[in-house]
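hey so i finally got around to running the thing on that chain from the lab meeting. sorry it took forever, my laptop kept dying and i had to restart like 3 times. anyway pasting the input first so we r on the same page abt which one it is
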Amino acid sequence: MSPSYINVFLTFARNSLVRDMSFRMNFILQCFATMSWAAMNFGLFKIIYRHTESIGRGTGWFEDEFFIFLGTIWIINSLIQTFFMANAEEFSELIRTGNLDFALLKPIDTQFLISFPRVNWAQLPNGVLGAVLIVLSLRNLAADPNREIYISFWNIFPFLFYVLCGVLVMYSVMIVLASTSIWLGRNQNLYTFWFYITNFYRYPMEIYQRNGIGMALWATFTFVVPILVVSNVPARVLAQPMGRSWMNWEAGYAVVAAVGSLLVSRLVFKLALKSYRSASS
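ok and heres what got predicted. didnt touch it at all, straight out
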């Protein structure tokens, strides 16, 4: 990203923060709502682990390992909802009102312009909670003599790298969904489709690797819409549910999926823009 684009993004981020601070009570309530959702999500899995040792037989996803996985999901969801979700939802309104015309006339890349104008700072607390949950779970694993886990400061770099890959995949899926607004005229079901699709990546991929519909879901959401690698690969770097199993084909595939998803989303977005009819036409 060139310095000029970085400056534009920083301007968007600063303006969004000023707007949020102008309505501080609303901002505080939004933060409280997102943190409450995380607390309930944590409580649900605490209850589940009172009835089972691991999620999936022989998968290695015991309680602390899974909470590292859960914290990873919170971080990725927080980044997506902070930087992209509100902007993707607004895209259909730009098309309906004809304001996309003004974006197309700006001397800046249109996809960048519609992806970053609003930063939803109230969604960041979930990411902070995710980081805290990961640290506490890692501490529990390190203190358990019965667990074989290799914790090192250097693990954080591949973890952050694969989190970035996951964010790029999810962003690409969101851009493809948002681009359909040009063909549909007005797509207000973005969040609904987003929820249905991303609901599958909230669990370890091993639970899908069974005969029948499980394998079909695993193949679809690993190779067609590669959302299972989004959370599974970075979580494995730290949790290591099956030892150092993250150092396999899935790690390399996460990079391929991120790059491929970005290219596909760019192609779909450009193709959709060619079908756009401005408000003046």
